[in-house]
Sequence to fold (127 residues):
Amino acid sequence: MTFPASLVPELAHHLAEYASAGRTGLVFVGARGGVLGRNNFRRIWLRALDATGLGDVHFHDLRHTGNTLAATGGATTRELMHRMGHSSVRAALIYQHLANGRDHQNADYVDGQIRKVKRPPRGPSGT
Fold:
């Protein structure tokens, strides 16, 4: 998978400044480097969404995206089950179904249509 060139430096900066070190390190940590509590995480997550203008994105959406990308990258049912922490194949098959169909192409098309719509600049409305 490739990322837009502008995203790579931002991800690298976040990982260097705000995440735990190492391959298994936490991506989001508290002020002292530990696990974020539920209330603290929610407050930080909502502030990040507001700052980026992403709107109503749920944290669980990242899990769904990651598993979809893993499936489209060729992850097996067993690998998806392990990744998701599931003991049944039901959820893994959902992601593999996405990988086998045209859903990825459809999502790219929808993404392109959304990107064509320009968000109006924030500021005084002039009224």
About this structure: The chain has two domains: 1-54, 58-117. The chain has a mean pLDDT of 80. Residues 67 and 95 are 7 Å apart (CA to CA). Residues 38-52 form the longest helix (15 residues).
